[in-house]
Amino acid sequence: MTDVVKQEAAAGKAAKKNRVADKKLLLEVNDLKVQFDIPSKSLWPWAKPSKLKAVDGVSIKLYEGETLGIVGESGCGKSTFARALIGLVPAVAGSVVWLGQDLTRLPYKEMREKRKEIQMIFQDPLASLNPRMTVGDIIAEPLRTFFPQLSKVEVKEQVKDMMTKVGLLPNVINRYPHEFSGGQCQRIGIARALILKPKMIICDEPVSALDVSIQAQVVNLLQSLQKELGLSLIFIAHDLSIVKHISDRVLVMYLGNVVEVGETKALFAEPKHPYTKALMSAVPIPDPILERQKKIEMLEGDLPSPLNPPSGCVFRTRCPVAKASCAETKPTLTGDEAHAVSCLLVA
Ligand code: SF4
């Protein structure tokens, strides 16, 4: 490497460090663990329940205005992790520090207040809306709960404003969810999540149940609202193309563990973990010639049970480059904020 190239690389690293230092840290999750007790099938009445490790020590940081994408197979713990962030499922260990306060230790009343700042959008748009309530009532419900002092007229005004913001006509305020398409129902869910002006939204597979054209509309809507309102997003999805499009950083999960995390560009350009490589190789390329030449790295077998995870590296039973030592030592995330990997073979 010439001196000029070295200097440019050093300047680039310094600029990146400054950009990170400039940003305000909203959320810091440290070693979060979620476990469920599964009753034993034994007839012995004192048999102990088994522990299902749904999330096994996940740490993340989220900055103001940033989007963190979370990917991984079904059953890898993405949604459980997201729910644990806002206390919908209890964490058995670790901390969720939101603007300097650990949410896992907050009393119920204070945690309820914090929910104004963190909202969630769910996967199935129709199932997440109460079929007996009108659209207006669904969107207004959080306002009435947290701001009971608002008059009916003020609530209606705010609801109509929000409906316009998310691309719904205010004159459908008295209709019921079943009268809307999947995309429109997701817009109602977004309006309900945004009505309290939160700082962060957790999007739990918000477009998985929608048609491709509608997916693009909803993703574009989320991006424009993020820009307008300065929101931070945690975006969970199966579709890596969408995650690549919307995320600033991406976190890859496998069996409740983080196997790789990094800035979207770096991670997609040079995935380092064998699991991430397999996921990336399955992403379609919009060029028929390249797509035909592409080698897909197939993973053998199914995701192991989180009731009985493999010893050492949790990915070793499906890893194409596993060594004997992978069964003995559990790898930890190594690297920096720009790109970190959890694999014994990656220095
Ligand atoms: S630690 Fe071993 S088993 Fe795990 S991903 Fe790396 S090479 Fe594969």
From TrEMBL:
Give an example GO molecular function: ATP hydrolysis activity
Question: Per the record's keyword annotation, is Secreted included, yes or no?
Answer: no
In terms of Gene3D superfamilies, this protein maps to: P-loop containing nucleotide triphosphate hydrolases
Keywords from the named record: ATP-binding, Nucleotide-binding, Transport
TM region positions: none
Taking every annotated instance into account, which residue ranges of this chain make up the domain ABC transporter?
38-280
Q: Which InterPro entries match?
A: AAA+_ATPase, ABC_transp_ATP-bind, ABC_transporter-like_ATP-bd, ABC_transporter-like_CS, Oligopep_ABC_C, P-loop_NTPase
The record's CDD domains line, in alphabetical order, gives: ABC_NikE_OppD_transporters
Q: For this chain's UniProt record, which GO biological process terms are given?
A: peptide transport; transmembrane transport
Q: Which domain of life is it from?
A: Bacteria
Q: Which family does it belong to?
A: Belongs to the ABC transporter superfamily.
Which protein are we looking at? Oligopeptide transporter subunit ATP-binding component of ABC superfamily
Organism annotation:
Moritella yayanosii
Upper classification of the source organism reads:
Bacteria, Pseudomonadati, Pseudomonadota, Gammaproteobacteria, Alteromonadales
Gene symbol here is oppF
